[in-house]
Amino acid sequence: MGISKTEAASALTDIESAARRSGLLKGYRGAGPILMVWGVIWALGYGGMGISPPEIWGWIWLPLDVIGVVATVLMSRAAKGAGTAAGQAGMGWKIVTGVLALLIFFAATFTLLSPASVEAAIAYPGVVTGLVYAGVGIAYAPRYLWIGAAVFAASMVGYFFFQPWLNYWMAVVGGGGLIVAGLWLRRA
Question: What would the DSSP string read from start to end of 137-181?
């Protein structure tokens, strides 16, 4: 007993759909620990900002950002798993290039828009991060839309309602939110 062309096409479509879903879930599981690392970095960075003068905030974030980028590249390569060494190297450069593009965009918009208050400058990274995650969620991986929306909303809530404690708000809600999001993705 043979199968018809329609049944074969339907079976292939089902297989492709399952493969796409499997790849997406694998991507979520690989991204979970990376989000948790960035959650810790946010908690340390914003917490450090809360206990130090604004003049040294850049020196707090510089080593944390370098650690975050290096950890992201290494963890991405590890999550890639059994891929070829050339493929893993290519993935590392794509991540570094993407992160650099985002940092350039962030610096350019921050310079052009020059926040009028220190509170706006504190909330701005969360708003941009939320936008980036939401964009990735819309384009590729729906769970990122929810993560982006939460980071964006938390940043805005902190800006409007918790300005005296905004650094601590961003450390706990932003950093903690990324850690929780990482746990959620890891369970995928």
Answer: HHHT-HHHHHHHHHHHHHHHHHHHH-GGGHHHHIIIIIIHHHHHH
Cα-only R_g, the chain: 20
Residue 8 belongs to a domain: no
Distance CA 80, CA 87 (A): 9
Check residue 165 and report its DSSP letter. Answer: G
Q: Reduced to 3 states, what is the DSSP secondary structure of residue 176?
A: helix
In the prediction, which pLDDT does 1 show?
A: 61
Q: Mind listing the pLDDT tens digit for each residue in 132-185?
A: 899 888 988 899 999 999 999 999 999 999 999 999 999 999 999 999 999 998
Distance CA 116, CA 176 (A): 27
**In the chain, how many domains are there?**
1
Token duo for residue 110: 């921050």
Whole-angstrom distance, CA of residue 29 vs CA of residue 185: 6
Residue 7 within any structural domain of the chain: no
> End-to-end CA distance of the chain, in Å?
39
| Spatial distance between the Cα atoms of 125 and 11, rounded to a whole number of angstroms | 45
Q: Is the CB of residue 177 less than 8 Å from the CB of residue 153? A: no
- What length is written for the chain? 188
Structural domain that includes position 65: 20-186
